[in-house]
Amino acid sequence: MKRRTFCASALATVAAASIPVRRALAADVPALGPANKQVVLQSSAIDDLRAAMRGELLVPGQEGYDAARRVWNGAFDRHPALIARCAGAADVIQAVKFGRSHDLVVAVRGGGHSLSGQSVCEGGLMIDLSPMKSVHVDPLARTGRLEPGVLLGQFDREAQAFGLATTAGTVSHTGAAGLTLGGGFGRLGRKYSLACDNMYAAEIVTANGQFVRASEKENPDLLWGLRGGGGNFGVVTSFEYRLHDVNPIMLGGPLIYPFEQAHEVLSFYSDFILTAPDELYADAALLPTPDGKRILLLDICYCGSIEAGERAVAPLRNFRKPMIDGVRPTPYVDLQRSADANNPHGRGYYIKSGFLKRIEPRMVDAVVEHLSGTAPMTALIIFAHAGGAIGRVKPDATAFLHREANHSLIIQGFWDKPADADASTQWARGTWRAVESMTDGFYVNEVSNEDPERRIRANYGANYDRLVKLKNKYDPTNLFRMNANIKPNV
Prior knowledge:
CATH topology of the largest domain: Vanillyl-alcohol Oxidase, Chain A, domain 3
Strand content: 15-25%
Largest sheet: 8 strands, antiparallel
Oligomer: single chain
CATH class of the largest domain: Alpha Beta
Shape: globular
CATH architecture of the largest domain: 3-Layer(aba) Sandwich
Structural class: alpha+beta
Helix content: 25-40%
């Protein structure tokens, strides 16, 4: 009898002691809604959301909060009121319903690689999908299914175990979700088109908390919008892709030229690349080196046979002898992570971008001039390669419109020290003003916080009205606005 009394008393003491710990995590929390509307989240509501989730719900000051709020672009230092670290679709549903019912600013983080920092918000709800990392490859059907926290390198490694791949960016720590929803360029894009073109189905939680499947047979209008329309229509909880047989060993690597030869090599490249085979991918980048010099780098990947690749690359090698020739048979997964070190997490980045049908001589003149003289050593310009199969998809077949582009021009300032931020940013803005008139549209994954609504509207062109109808249907209150935002008109 005494033993039973002791056990019951001990259990009651433990239970009572646990109550204040739980409540301490869920004090009332000040938060922000759209237009900086002041909101106070009651502790009871926070407790209810935490109890409904399988994953974590973090508040400021809680262990893990600061790590969870950090995103790739260190230019953004924002503090959400709540971070919902979702373990699955059910958690996403709860978080979306909470954000809507409490009229919060909502940001959605997949891989956290958004250039504009819009995967984290100030004072609102951050729906963090990074714990959702499942990848499943069906080698017989040649398909892949992944959750939105998966990074491109993780997807590549899983698919390459079966000799398969799909278009998946050029930096391996980029999130697959954001890449795909914006379009999705990559080293295989000229052969197999954009990542969004290879996505044949998705599951999504819409603004009213409904779980919806989008495919060519189910809600095909929504699938159309997810292919290039960004995160405007909800939170995607799984993606399904067509995969392709590829050789795990490809011809690739850098051809590096001194900056003094940049004008003539870039001029030759601009003409040569217009007739390149679909298998050849070649970015051109004007970069600073760690020892304070500038170079022109051609980043090569040939996804056909090694012999055919050698023939395709020969004109570039023979026009001017590069000072470094690193093009050789290389595992595809190594090529995919070759730019990782130059794009580290936590560095500050400022980017402007626009599409080009071709690199005109006046463009070559402008970029070489703006990187000469007093340009900071935290400045770079990239001509990301497109064209090929991407251009053979009709502009209205997906939300992604700019099929005629052969390059995406990227003007980037970066900094590791906050003191360098202003000089890098001002250089990028000035260079962009000099070249913007030569561009037509832009890649929405490179949207800037400064981009006005009219630029986004113009970017989607003839597809814009159809996207507005989708926004009216799936997100009429514009809950998902931290993106290249398409505003509803209902």
